[in-house]
Amino acid sequence: MQIEVSRPQPASLSVSLGTPVCWADMQPEAPTPVIEFVDVSYRIDGTQVLSNLSLQVARGETLVLLGRSGSGKTTTLKLVNRLATPTSGEVRVNGESNEKADVIRLRRHIGYVIQDVGLFPHFTVERNIGLVPRIEGWPEERIRSRVQELLQLVGLADGLAKRYPHQLSGGQRQRVGVARALGADPEILLMDEPFGALDPLTRDELQREFLLLQRRLHKTVVFVTHDLREALRLGSRIALMEAGKLVTVLPPNEFVKSEDPWAAAYVRAFGNGLESVQNRGTT
Amino acid sequence: MNVVRFILHNHTQVVELTLEHLWLVGLSTAFAMLIGIPLGIVIAHRPRLNKPVLASANIIQTIPSLALFGFLLPVPWLGERSDRLAILALTLYALLPIIRNTYTGIRGVDPAVTEAGRGMGLTGTQLLFQVELPLALSVILSGVRVALVISVGVATIAAAIGAGGLGEFIFRGLAMVDNRVILAGAIPAAILALMADMGVGWLERLLQAR
User: Does the predicted model carry a pTM greater than 0.90?
Assistant: First the structure.
């Protein structure tokens, strides 16, 4: 399966500080970046978590933030739905600066999936999935049909709707987490190591389903992981981070050949058996 | 059974004092909940406030109850009626378990859950009422339970300042050196404490099942 990959533009990263990058030169149609980090730094309690990050995420792509713990990838993700606010620089969603946006509205239009899932333990599966539609004031009938639709979409049986999270398996819980994030059909999906805590078989299953889902929905996804295989399999581009800095942004097939010392180190760490590159796609 | 005979013989007074006792305990616990739960919520969200608030509640708790009643006696409006005074003192005593349990309960909510809630765009109020309070409920209620049981005991001392309640029997019995009279106050008080304990436990299960 051919996945269209936007070209890496190392040069643009430094240029993008002041002048907007001209994407039109490189691609037939000029896609406005859905998410844009403009020279973003983030400090907390005297620790520099992110330094001068500039990055764009195009519509419909899956950008993977790869890096080790503490490299700043989760913080980068949280800047998008403003669970963190940059110390300097700007994050734009659909061209609008996050700082000016109504934070509640912003978050309701961005799906958010985290590793610990964070399902409400006192809500049934049904209520968890219908959460955002409900607080958005959808009519009850529409919420019900939306929940049905989402259960089907993530491959959960209708019978699970009335269960509580503690009655589900890890894989099922994570599916509910994804369904909940898709609740109000957001354009953007943020996923923070969503499959990290799952056993390898379930993880494989969910990765495959994610690819299928993404082929249907074409969401703009930012996906955090430290697993190179996962990054290679799911990402249309991989943004490698180290110590709060963006090292490089490359499509998977170039990433494995990259001369960049950090990228090469990552590839080495995962050994030579990187069949994942050939394994891209859903089969 | 002399005690039973005594209680049956004075049943109107036992009932009257029990009701008075209930009134002191009920009203003061209600006040303590009205103050303590919001305060607990506030300090759970502002960690900087938790030390001073909990420390103050702790200090109040260490004042011997008889002394507290005595201290409050000269206060103008309060001193006029001993039941006002008793209710204030009992409210102060009930604060600590309620504040502390509200604080603990809310802090105990899984951070992944609150973060997911915030990330999905719940407002602070929605997060509080739909997530934090329901999940902290059983811990908060067990604080109320402790407060109630303590209050039933401490309220017997309120009789020393003339606020009524089952302590009347106890103090009278002490003065008369008559165990029957003491027990006529102590037994109903113990039963009240047990009932309060069971009552809140029942409420807790009821709300949990919902």
Answer: no
